[in-house]
Specification:
heterodimer; A: 201 residues; B: 462 residues; mainly beta; 30 strands; globular; transmembrane (chain A); membrane (chain A); transmembrane helix (chain A); EC 1.8.3.4 (chain B); Se-bd (chain B)
């Protein structure tokens, strides 16, 4: 259940053009180089992993200091609040600059994932781990990092698959119609994840 | 309100944009030289199947007088699809319209209406306080919001001019764009090579150098702008100054290639003080440094001084005065306005270093005063602001340059006209020629096409 949720959320994140596959495609197109596209994906995944793992660590450490109920309550409130803010705010992530080194690309991905609350969306999974490992904070923490890694693997696979398909076959024209407003779905997903966390508290 | 799918006028690549549907409306900045009546945005019907085709179908008076509308732009464009900070679900909806003389900036809503409605006015004080600039000019939608170039300084300072950043949602002035402006002082146009993190800017003059007309001593003293500036778009820092030579006075319009893999563009120079010729330059990057090469030179035409305005009498010639150029979205055609001689030239620029003139249309001009198939007699003013449709098939050209300069070069009155041109045959569209009273006594300047045009959008994908 935990693994399935982590993988599904990973796929969901990988699907989002803003999370990096589009940037990888753009970098490939700019140099007419599939190699450049492929080289971009691990950096993007690394940034994403950093963002998600950070939340796993925060939840793990906080969980070792408080009860799992308190942890879930706090996590749920944070999620609902952040989700509502994402839903209502008109602000979007800002960044200038196309010519990034791979470490800079990883940093970009970290910021992009964090600004969108990618790691927060996994809070119910992380807090669930903690409840399951009551009394073994260390297990919960390493389990959380494992979940983050699995999640990122799914994200990487989906993003890579889409990036290659778009680059080699589909082209970007379809973006004009197919780029559904994922930000709103994300906001809804964040609020939903928060509610689930609160219900399980 | 955010959309569920991207704004349909956003295109990932210039190739996609070239397949865009034809524009149905065109917006025209029109101003009253006497500053007694308000300036306006006039709306033209550009749908050939409409019974109102080629006529003014909408009109929005501004609430003040003396703004001198000039250039303007959209709140959002295809750059919203750029991969590093995509926000494709905003709408291309608002026109951002600066008053070049008043330093006011108007925000006009175009959605679901013919005549736009003013929804916000940014007062000159806000621009001065937040950014330290006045005389706002070019507007481009870009990665950090709206970029607005400005010719003048604020609080009594004539310069430097530069670029202000506006929030693209609230339209608040966020501040000065430049972190390090290096030697740059004069300002005019700007655009970028968006995928290379490079901004390019050009030079005209400070307010005191232009607002009462071209100043002969300054021109002959080679004091107007003659440089291009290259900047780091990301770090907002000046990188390189490129001097075209001080005889090349007034480097105005900048048209970088739309294909984001390229790093070349075209810059128009109004006049050389050596021989009154005008020129177009191609800038490019070689071995890490920016360079420019003159690729088009248009000579002055000798004329009887008796028929010339005072400003030209000593020279006995009509300068071409290249005051605007425009590059088609597919980067294949360059249009060059010769506002002095009265000619619009069409070049094949598939090789940007070897432009080939493939067409020329005479209209207006200081001595020729060439007519138009749908006009009743001679026309004054010349082809000036030129805009190309996204598919590259239609060209629109208006006749006024800048109030005080119109009066110097066309002292008998510049008139008012705007011509539609079929780009394939390079002939005037006889059904598209709003002129004279159609503009209610105002002078037409820049044209913007509904949904975007050749000088409105930047693309992040080739």
């Amino acid at each position: 259940m935990t693994v399935a949720a982590a993988l599904l959320l990973g796929a969901f994140h990988g699907l989002n053009p803003a999370m990096g596959w589009l940037f990888a495609v753009a970098r490939g197109l700019q140099e007419r180089s599939r190699v450049r596209l492929l080289a971009s994906l691990p950096a993007i995944a690394a940034g994403h992993l950093g963002s998600v793992a950070l939340v796993a660590v925060v939840v793990g450490v906080t969980g070792s200091l408080t009860t799992s109920t308190m942890l879930s309550m706090a996590g749920g409130v944070v999620l609902v609040g952040f989700g509502l803010w994402r839903l209502l705010s008109k602000r979007h992530f800002r960044w200038v600059g196309m010519r990034l080194s791979l470490p800079q690309l990883a940093a970009w991905s970290f910021l992009m994932s964090s600004a969108h609350g990618a790691g927060l969306m996994l809070i119910p999974v992380f807090t669930g781990l903690h409840a399951g490992h009551a009394g073994h904070a260390g297990h919960a923490l390493s389990g959380g990092l494992g979940v983050a890694a699995l999640h990122t693997l799914a994200m990487f696979a989906v993003a890579g698959g889409i990036a290659l398909t778009v680059y080699e076959v589909a082209g970007l024209t379809m973006l004009r119609r197919a780029w559904f407003n994922v930000d709103r779905m994300w906001a809804a997903a964040l609020v939903g994840a928060g509610v689930i966390t609160l219900l399980n508290a | 309100m955010a959309l569920w799918t991207p704004d349909p006028t956003f295109y990932p690549s210039p190739r996609d944009a070239a397949g865009a549907p034809a524009e149905r409306l065109a917006y025209v900045a029109a101003f009253d030289r006497s500053a007694r009546r308000p300036d306006a945005i006039a709306v033209l019907d550009t749908d050939p199947s409409s019974s109102d085709y080629g006529t003014v179908v909408g009109w929005t008076d501004l609430p003040h007088t003396g703004d001198e509308l000039h250039h303007f732009g959209w709140n959002a464009c295809s750059s919203a699809l750029c991969p590093y900070a995509p926000h494709p679900h905003v709408e291309r909806r608002y026109l951002v319209v600066p008053g070049l003389r008043s330093s006011r900036i108007y925000i006009l809503d175009t959605k679901d209406r013919i005549s736009p409605e003013i929804v916000k006015v940014i007062e000159p004080e806000e621009l001065a306080k937040r950014a330290g600039y006045s005389r706002p000019h070019t507007v481009h939608c870009g990665p950090e919001g709206l970029y607005v170039s400005a010719l003048g300084g604020a609080d009594g300072r004539d310069g430097p001019g530069g670029i202000a950043i506006l929030d693209h949602q609230s339209f608040e002035v966020l501040g000065r764009w430049e972190v390090d402006r290096g030697p740059q002082y004069l300002a005019y146009d700007f655009w970028w090579h968006i995928n290379h993190d490079v901004l390019v800017s050009s030079e005209w003059g400070t307010p005191s150098m232009i607002e009462d007309g071209v100043v002969g001593e300054l021109l002959l003293g080679r004091k107007y702008g003659h440089k291009l500036h290259f900047w780091d778009l990301r770090k907002r820092r000046h990188v390189q100054e490129l001097d075209l030579g001080d005889q090349h006075q007034m480097t105005l319009e900048l048209r970088p290639a739309h294909d984001p893999t390229h790093t070349y563009g075209f810059a128009g120079v109004v006049v050389s003080v050596e021989d009154l010729s005008a020129s177009v330059w191609t800038w490019f990057r070689e071995n890490g440094a920016w360079q420019a090469r003159k690729v088009i030179e248009i000579p002055a035409e000798p004329a009887d001084p008796a028929g010339l305005p005072d400003v030209l009498k000593p020279f006995g010639a009509v300068p071409p005065l290249v005051t605007d150029i425009d590059l088609s979205v597919d980067d294949q055609r360059l249009y060059v306005s010769c506002w002095g001689t009265g000619e619009l030239k069409q070049y094949d620029v598939s090789d940007p270093f070897e432009p080939v003139e493939i067409g020329s249309l005479p209209i207006g001009g200081i001595t020729r005063q060439e007519s138009h198939p749908s006009a009743d007699g001679p026309l004054r003013g010349g082809p000036q602001m030129v805009e190309v449709s996204r598919d590259g098939r239609r060209v629109y050209v208006s006749n006024s340059l800048y109030g005080a300069w119109d009066d110097q070069f066309y002292p008998e009155g510049v008139g008012a006209w705007l011509a539609g041109i079929d780009a394939d045959t390079f002939t005037f569209d006889e059904r598209f020629f709003p002129h004279g009273d159609d503009f209610r006594g105002l002078r037409p300047h820049q044209v913007r096409l509904q949904g975007g045009d050749a000088s409105s959008d930047s693309y992040c994908y080739p």
